[in-house]
Specification:
Mean pLDDT: 83
CATH architecture of the largest domain: Alpha-Beta Barrel
Number of domains: 2
Shape: globular
CATH topology of the largest domain: ADP-ribosylation fold
Number of helices: 6
Number of strands: 11
Radius of gyration: 19 Å
Length: 222
C-alpha cells in the first residue's frame, strides 16, 4: 500500500489525465462516417472495418481544418497521406490538394479489460538509464499533436528480437534492451491498455509507466 501511495503521488498529474481520458471514447466508425457525410456531403469516405480505419478524399482544402476538428472530436486522428507528390505519415501543415487521400485511425481502440501481469517493451540500450529514472512516457504529454504518441507493449517476449531487427533497419541502433513491466506494481485503475489493431500480439497505452515497475531481462544484439 505504501508503494502505491508513493507512485500515485509521483504520477498524480498523469493519473488525473487518465481519469479524464476515461470519459473519452472513439465514436463507432459507421456513426463517424454518417456524421461526416451529413456535414460534408461531397466528401468521399472509404471504410476499412478489418483494421478499423477510414480514408477521406475529394475534400475541400479551404475548410480542411474545420473538417479535421470534427473528426478529431469524434475520436480519430490522421495517420497517413497518399497523394501524387507525397506518400507517408501525416504531419501538421502538410500540403494537400483535391487528389489527396488521408487515412484516419482510432484514438482509442478496444480496451483490454484483463491486463496481463507482465508486459514487455524494447528500447535502445542508450535510452535505458533515462527510462530507469523517469519510466516510459508518451511524448504527446509534452506537446500538442494530431497523432497521439503511445507506449507500445508486447505480450509475448519471444517476438522482441524480430522487432529489434526491424527497428535496427529504421534507426541504425544495434543494441536493444528487452524490458519487462510488472503491472502489479502499477496502481489499480491507473494503467489503461488498448489492443493494437496493427499488431495482433501487442498493446499500447497513453499513460506513463512508472520506473518502479520496469526491469531489463535481456540484451539484444543486432
Amino acid at each position: 500500500m505504501k508503494l502505491l501511495n508513493i507512485l500515485l503521488s509521483i504520477y498524480k498529474e498523469e493519473y488525473e489525465v487518465n481519469l479524464q481520458e476515461g470519459l473519452i471514447k472513439t465514436t463507432n466508425i459507421n456513426k463517424t462516417s454518417n456524421i461526416i457525410k451529413n456535414n460534408y456531403p461531397n466528401l468521399e469516405i472509404d471504410i476499412n472495418k478489418n483494421n478499423n480505419t477510414f480514408k477521406i478524399k475529394n475534400f475541400n482544402t479551404t475548410n480542411f481544418n474545420e473538417l479535421l476538428k470534427l473528426i478529431n472530436n469524434l475520436g480519430w486522428f490522421p495517420s497517413w497521406v497518399e497523394s501524387p507528390f507525397y506518400n507517408g505519415k501525416y504531419f501538421e501543415g502538410i500540403e494537400l490538394n483535391s487528389t489527396s487521400q488521408i487515412r484516419f485511425e482510432a484514438k482509442y481502440d478496444e480496451k483490454e479489460e484483463n491486463i496481463p501481469n507482465l508486459l514487455y517493451h524494447i528500447s535502445p540500450t542508450s535510452n535505458t538509464p533515462k527510462i530507469y529514472k523517469n519510466g516510459l512516457a508518451p511524448k504527446s504529454r509534452s506537446k500538442a499533436s494530431y497523432h497521439p504518441e503511445r507506449v507500445y507493449l508486447l505480450k509475448d517476449p519471444s517476438q522482441a528480437e524480430d522487432l529489434a531487427d526491424l527497428f535496427y533497419q529504421k534507426t541504425g541502433e544495434n543494441i536493444w534492451d528487452l524490458l519487462q513491466i510488472d503491472t502489479n506494481k502499477i496502481p489499480g485503475d491507473y494503467l489503461r491498455l488498448y489492443k493494437d489493431p496493427n499488431y495482433g500480439n501487442g498493446y499500447y497505452t497513453l499513460n506513463n509507466i512508472p520506473p518502479q515497475s520496469i526491469k531489463i531481462i535481456k540484451k539484444i544484439f543486432i
